[in-house]
Request: fold
Amino acid sequence: MNRVGTAVILLFLFGLRAHAQQAPLSLDQAVQQALDRYPAMRASIEQVSAAAAGINLARTSYLPRMDLLAQENRATHNNVFGQLLPQSVIPSMTGPVLGTNSLNSVWGSGVGALVSWEPFDFGLRRANVDLAKASRDRANAQVSVTKLQVATAAADAYLTILAAQQTVTAAKAGVDRAKVLNQTVETLVNNQLRPGADASRTRAELALAQTQLIQAQEAVDVGLAALAQLLGVSPQSILIEAGSFLKPPQSATAPAAPLRTHPLAVTQDEAVNEVKAREKVLSRSYFPKFDLQAAAFARGTGINSDGTADGTLSGFAPNTQNWSVGISVTFSAFDLASIHARQQIEAHNERSETSRYQQILQDLTGQLDKAKATLIGSKRIAQNTPIELDAARMSERQAAARYKAGLGDVVEVAEAERILTQAEIDDSLAKLGIWRALLAVAAASGDLQPFLQETHK
Reply:
């Protein structure tokens, strides 16, 4: 074998060894990786950046404005008396009426600069900046909502995988017991010590146990796929272990966080503030607009006031200069009706968003109460399942002994084994149920940190 082939084999074996020694993924790591990789988080953060840029845009209204113009044209020079209403079709013309109607053309040119600045605006620009800040604050609050949702989904998927793995372990034990029972009964039937119906029953029980195992394995695969979707990896690359989750948490108590600090409530409160900011902008809109203006410009024309034309290139370059400084005041007197209508719209929007805020608080209260009730029930179940498991084991041993002694039938043994399998599943899931209930309480409270800290105890 050449050196290249040897190196390839060594690299392949090293890769297999590294994969085999892959460290299990902790719940904290799963949550953090989901927050780092899930696209919804990046999209939410970019929305905050866009809203923050909107603040800078609103602040530019405080700056002066400069408009520059340069124009070159070749046109006829006929001018007439008369008035034209404002329109955008017929070009404007300056100068005296020459009394001509010729298609001869001359050069015309113009350059200029106009600087305008609004010295005061009765608070309109400040209101627009505040509106942009309100939009930024709402987008920032939405990041917290997305973060809570992604973290909760990752933690729930993690615990779902653990629950499915524990179910697989119990289901495998049930399959092993069903195989032993089936083999024992088959031997007795073959020796004509038991009726053939007993063998048929044990084969059916074995098939049922195997079906239960397949369903549990399917649940593991589905859970891995759900977590892999959040982490942006393949399901086969995820390795987790039960760790401390097979023991009840040390302090399985519900936190008493105020629901007004829940990210959903905060986001909706910011939505109300955004509507109020729009109302403030409208309240500052019905005022005159003052502009300090300074202009410098120059024009050129190839025609004289007496109607005579100069040289061929006359007017191609500006040759007459002017400047001006002044203040302009504009006031849209008939905008009051439209502004009033928009204020009514925003007033309805404010009441609508306020009602949604109250609904969110009411819904969060209900979710928290249900999560607390689930936590209480989970703790009671965890206290009861050991009793269920001990009794099921005793019943299974007694049923097997009665069957061997000829005092019982195979139905009694099969039923006892099914009860034992279910008791093992219930007991293995009971402690995980407390953890899942704690996660639900933390999610309903809007803060997963108490739950994550509890996993390290």
